[in-house]
Specification:
This protein is 74% helix and 1% strand. The chain has 406 residues and is mostly helical. Helix 3 runs antiparallel to helix 4, helix 4 runs antiparallel to helix 5 and helix 11 packs antiparallel against helix 12.
Length: 406
């Protein structure tokens, strides 16, 4: 009896499995309909409460409406999460999912994989993912009036989430107990990736919806950034793009990416740019890399260091003040004699960079030689005669101002 029972059970299981799979495929559209209806109800309720929350009137108790808004937002996210697990997961499992749904589930698992090792990142990125998922659905199915209302909420919430994500990375980067460079390298990548993602997906929306006057101080940088969104980028292009992203961040994310973190990001780009100049063997490409480095040095000094109020090292502060005075003096030549202005500015930047890199732990011997050859060509330093090593390297130079000798 036991054997027969086992055989019958096995046969029935196979039979019922086939029926269950068939029924699941039939019932999935119903599930989608139910989940879709619930999402719509929760979303409409959230938008209504959000609009009340944003009103600056005395009609509402601020704390009470804020609590209602938070509750409605959590309920909305939970419904979206349920949709992913109840509907998309089952459709993928039963091989009835579209490419969009397969990609959505893959992204969901990518986000949830952060939970154990990077909880704060997971916390914000999961919210961002669920909002993005519903946004795609709204773009396809919703009426224009609903889109407009939702977009106001979406932009506002995404602004908050991106700021939180960047602040989390900034805290990690500023953590002096973390001495592993490899870990920090990955944080730089995340910061630049998040800034780029925000500008492409959120800032572009804001610029279409909100008044143009609000973006006057970043429109030039935004247009420059757009040039780097088309085609394949090489190392030089990526450094230039990240330089633009940092420039925009100084206007949009001054608290989430504070000056001390932005300074580290600039220094990382400077290190990469110097390395590119050193490693590029083709003369024309090396010259382009050098021009990019000069632009980066100017950006770093003008956009960041000129706004720095607190300096831990007073010698560095005094040195920068002297540099800044010279930079402003050279700036007066711009309209009178542009070529002379450009040459003197380059000389100032090269001398300043030589001072910064000559005693660092990195091997910058090649770029030091490159700088010094340029300075000789510009007549900014004198070359000592008969002072060559057998390898052909320069042994000595004298700067006219005697600021640097090598």
């Amino acid at each position: 009896m036991e054997e027969k029972s086992l055989k019958i059970t096995g046969t029935n299981t196979t039979f019922f499995n086939k029926i269950t799979k068939t029924l699941t495929k039939i019932l999935i559209p119903t599930k989608i309909g139910i989940n879709g209806m619930l999402i719509t109800i929760k979303r409409n309720n959230l938008i209504k409460i959000y609009e009340n929350y944003k009103k600056e009137t005395e009609e509402y108790n601020t704390k009470e409406i804020e609590k209602k808004y938070d509750t409605a937002y959590i309920a909305y996210l939970e419904t979206l999460d349920k949709y992913v697990m109840d509907t998309i997961y089952k459709k993928v499992k039963n091989d009835t999912a579209t490419e969009f749904e397969k990609d959505a589930l893959a992204r969901y698992y990518e986000v949830t994989s952060l939970k154990e090792k990077e909880y704060m990142d997971y916390k914000y990125r999961k919210q961002k993912y669920l909002l993005e998922l519903d946004k795609e659905s709204i773009e396809i199915n919703a009426k224009e009036k609903i889109k407009e209302k939702y977009n106001n909420f979406y932009i506002d919430k995404m602004d908050t989430l991106y700021k939180s994500i960047l602040k989390n990375y900034s805290i990690k980067l500023a953590d002096t107990t973390n001495v592993y460079d490899s870990t920090k390298e990955w944080i730089y990548v995340k910061i630049f990736y998040t800034l780029e993602e925000y500008i492409q997906n959120i800032l572009s929306m804001k610029m279409k919806i909100e008044p143009k006057e609000e973006f006057t101080d970043i429109v030039d940088d935004y247009e420059k950034f757009e040039a780097y969104t088309v085609g394949k980028l090489d190392i030089k292009d990526n450094i230039e793009k990240n330089m633009i992203l940092l420039g925009i961040s100084r206007k949009l994310f001054t608290h989430s990416v504070p000056l001390v973190v932005a300074e580290q990001c600039y220094e990382k780009l400077l290190k990469d740019a110097r390395g590119l100049v050193q490693d590029t063997k083709i003369a024309t490409k090396r010259e382009k890399a050098y021009e990019m480095l000069i632009s980066l040095i100017e950006d770093y000094n003008v956009r960041l260091l000129s706004t720095k109020v607190y300096w831990e090292n007073t010698k560095e502060r005094d040195s920068y003040k002297k540099f800044w005075d010279k930079y402003k003096k050279i700036g007066k030549l711009k309209d009178e004699n542009f070529l002379e202005y450009k040459k003197q500015k380059e000389v100032l930047f090269m001398k300043n960079d030589i001072e910064k890199i000559r005693n660092t732990k990195y091997d910058y011997s090649k770029i030091l030689t490159y700088y010094k050859r340029k300075l000789v060509d510009y007549g900014a330093i004198k070359e000592l005669k008969n002072q060559y090593k057998s390898e052909g390297k320069y042994k000595g130079y004298i700067l006219k101002e005697n600021k640097v000798s090598a």
